[in-house]
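Rotation project, supervised by the postdoc (A.L.). Task for the rotation student: set up a whole-complex structure prediction and record inputs and outputs verbatim in this book. Inputs entered:
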Amino acid sequence: MQAVDEKLQLAERSKLLDALYAAQKRYGYLTKEALRDVAEELGLPLKDVYSTASFYSLYHMKPTGQYVIQVCEGLVCSLRGGAERLVDYLRKKLDIDVGETTPDGKFTLQTVQCLAACDASPAMRVNDDLYENLTLDEVDAIIDMLAGG
Amino acid sequence: MLEKVLLKNMGVRHVEHIDIYMARGGYQAVRKALLEFEPQEIIEMVKKSGLRGRGGAGFPTGLKWDFMPKDPNVTKYLCINFDEGETGTFKDRYLVEEDPHQVLEGAIIAAYAVGARKAYMYTRGEFPLGMKRWIKAVAEAYGRGFLGENILGTDFSLDVYVHRGAGAYICGEETALMESLEGKRGEPRVKPPFPTQVGLFGQPTLINNVETLACVPHIVLRGPEWFASIGTEQSKGPKIFCVSGHVKRPGNYELPMGTPLREIIYGHAGGVRDGRKLKAVIPGGASTPMLTPEQLDVPMAFETLPKVGSMLGTGAVIVMDESTCIVNAVLHLARFFAHESCGKCTLCRVGTSTMLRILERIEAGEGRDGDIDLLLDICETMYGKTFCPLGDAATNPVTSSIKYFREEYEYHIEEKRCMV
Amino acid sequence: MAEITLNIDGREVKGERGDTILQVCQKNGIDVPTLCHFAELSNIGSCRVCIVEIEERGRTRIDTSCTTPAAEGMVVRTNGEKLNAFRKAAIELLLSERNHFCMYCEMSGDCELQSLAYRFGIDHVRYPYFYPKLPVDSSRKYFIMDHNRCVLCRRCVRACAELVGNHTLGVMERGIGTMIHADLNVPFGESSCVSCGTCLSVCPTGALVDRRSAYMGREIQVERVKSTCLFCSVGCGTEIVVRDDYILRVEGDWDAEPNRGLLCVAGRFEPLYDETRERALKPLVRRDGRLEEASWEEALDLVAEKLRGFDKKAIGALASTRATNETLRLFADLFKEMGVENLGCLEGPIAEPREREFSLADLDEADMFIVVGEDLAEDHQVAGFFVKRGVNNRGARLVIVDEKETGFAPLAYRWLKPDEVEEAVRLCAAAARPAVIYGARAGEELEVLRRELADKARFFWMAPGTNARGALAAGLGGPFDAEAARCVYILACDEGKVCQELMAQLKEADFVAVQSSYIEPWAEVADVILPTVIWAEKEGSITNLEGRTLKVARAVEPPGEVKVEGEILRAIRLGVRG
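Outputs recorded:
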């Protein structure tokens, strides 16, 4: 046992991103309680946990729906006639704006930058699943399937 | 036409399983490297091959490996950069998802060459499938003794870990990646010291891109001379060019370094879709200056693209036809960079968002006289003076598009609508 | 240290290996503009204002001088049209980013952003303004955070982490949405902030503003008096900021030991914000049960008469440790001369510490802290910052040996009760440089530690009472017999806390004379109140817990008919001698 362990501190800190993913899964999104849990678990100051979590776009600091839809609005997906059309379609279909969640808590609509699916654009993610080469019909089918299930 | 080297296993069913991979010659390179060569010999081999980093910067790989301290008592790490986030780039994702063992082989050989006992794969948070396949491949490799203690009976041991990113393009930058891996905000570090001196957890760290590592087994198996025989004077080996945008057949195309841009677009990707005319092309991913049909004959290599005012970058070719409003296209890229700016330095933090606002108003028909020069002013202020190269990258689409398509901007401002 | 030579702006200049280019420039009188740089903090290269042109090994590049190490043979250009044009543009970008309205900002005239704008001749901003809607956090008691004026230089974040070790402040979000926040993004007043005010003292703009002194004076209108804080025995070096004989605020002296610019809430804010008692401006004498104003002559005569009248065994005298060395010696001499032996400190008896002198700076080397019978969250807070830095920034371990659960318990590796002290000794085995910090409540367990860790640990005495060492030197550390004292003289200074027991005993005394700055808490028990100076009106020296003699300087003139402590004591001595 060492009295001073700088390397140990660093090693503990390196668990933070994974700990945040786990907390997000457990709590649904990163609530203050979730963040406090993580801070205590890793022995980190609260501000470090919040500072780090709020930096990354995959951590949700606000409540999200059961399915988080992330439509790629990058250049290539737009060139292929994608992003804007899809986003508009989803806004109308779900009756919410970008960044919002449907009242039944099922869907959250977000736009994201390049998903590295440029050869199969337009593309979107729903939670951890990637959907490529999307047409409006396909988007329809995917949403209906998820809404039903 | 060049045989497929890196993409040899694309489309082969279940090649992500080690049995299939090995049946097609996999892990012979690891065997050869560990059993027939000393670590320094491997480094010399890679130097001789002329391999340059495929993540965008193009730094000579062998030289980087050689920078790592040789003292065996110093703890060293290998870091695999799988944070592919550059718009238009999708080669690394395919490599890891479809053929993870190839990358793993390269990683094992790299770690052996520089004396790293631990390798960290940093994967983009948006690539859960890639991460899953990689973890499985790693488990299989452990099972066959290609990882863990005393690999193949040598005194070389290697453990591989996975760190999942959480949605920040800036983490593709070496030092920002290390910050993120250490559990912090992905803000780049001051250089010097460089990662090969002070890297992860304060230790010397070798950071290599996925495609770069995928080249390594082939260099070992077929020799550096073979690798150097492909490509140009200063850019060696096969390269995966990602073609996307208004082409008939978007996808990954493995071709020799130095293949002319025209050949890539028309000879392989089917040319512009629907028989349309080419308007502009970004040759190396969103961070690189765009080109016009005039420069189409440029060979795609590190040393040749600067001659026409651009860069090879990741070799991601984005094709835009006559239906593209250039201002709108640049607006998309500006939105990308403003969103991904880490915020640490004032020039990039404010500059990227200011450029975005000006482009937004031009696009919306509210552009003002002097806006074009204002954009150029911001670009000049930022270029070379931001904390990290993301600032430079953000200016490239703007400066290059104004250089070639100024009249489109002017039209937007004067006529308050799109020229197209 | 190895010397290196550079060529800066055409001149050959010298620096030391390990210097940054900025440091070499500063050492050689070359003025490079900066904003996020602050001498006592780490350099982050974020504002880009200090950029210079560097020529090295045939290559030229532009980089920030605060982060680039200087190297032998470097050729540097710090000035020139191009560099200044870029700096100007960077400042303009900052001015466009948030809402920098100088006309009603209290920092106007002393703002570093504004100064840079003037320096570069910025008369307009060429970039479109963002006009973001940003909050003003006024939840803290003593100072406000206005995000509209923040330039995200992160000095506050670095100060809170590196200097204080508290880690309350951070940056959240990214890009243009970056904001300073506290803990889990809660109002600052509800956070782990300890109101030390260090962030306030490093902020270059009017983002962090001291409530009480806002709009009260520009730098050119104020005077700065270097003094020493009198609110605990650490003796932090202060700069008292005064205008027209009025105290605006207290700042830390960055050059002073042992605090090096840091202060705590007890010295920086409480004396100015939380002092609500009425000053004693004229002598008061009790007539017919009520305290009434009297002349100095009358009051002093009465006191002298009583002191002459009582038997010396029935006289007792107490001194507050807030008094200077000079005053305490005079006090002790006065009563010893009279043959009075029942002397003591207002705070209670003080045990002579084993350590004659030590250096708090040595705490920065410690790899383990054992805090015994002391709550560093309440008392000697600046000494506590050394512990916080050690634990939070260096990974040192903290072991608390205390009956009470102190404010530092969340930081501790272990909290042991005094009878578990052997465990602390055991834990010390792994430490190379342990430090034992002990306070007034330390008992037998301290002796155990002394025995077991004699050759290994350094000991640090958290002296109870500001000038405890001065009081001990004057022979005032002994126990006071309150029952025996029928006639009591108290040198109270501006002390506000007096233990209930003593007060009860004083009520029984026949005559009580108090030399005090405030009427309370003496109104009920005093027969005479002799008005005297407060901390900012004193002159002299104190000896801090390290054994260091520190200067106390007068910042403002005493009001009313108030006299300095020494003058009163001398007058009494004269009166007693007859």
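Student's summary: The first strand of chain A starts at residue 67 and ends at 72.
Supervisor addendum: The radius of gyration of chain A is 19 Å.
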